[in-house]
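One record is set out below.
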Amino acid sequence: MPRKSAESKYRKLPTYEDSQDSDDDIMSAVRSQQEMLTHQDESLDVLGQSAARLGMISLEISDELQAQNKMLDEMGEDLDQADINLEIVTRKTKELIKKSGGCKYFSIIVVLSLVVAILFFLIVYT
């Protein structure tokens, strides 16, 4: 029994053939790592191209948003001007109604205009 434990303490020295297998394993591992690095480089290139495209798209979106904001601002200014013009016309119309006798004469004119329109339709369709 003491002899077995003594043998188990020492390992066997590699022979030339074992050394050859070990070199082949190392070369295989190196090739595998190189292939992995090549694959990672290709993946990083694709990722870089995708990031560049996303950057270009985001710049185009930004330009489009700026153009639309400019159009909205211009439309807002046009609406403000139209509102001012409408207020002026409304004020002048109210002044004209006051000068022409107020709502009394205006309502008489509207009623008489409706009577004329009804009579016109009766004449045409009978």
Summary: The two ends are 136 Å apart (CA to CA). Residues 17-100 form one domain. The chain has a mean pLDDT of 85. The CA atoms of residues 34 and 40 lie 10 Å apart.
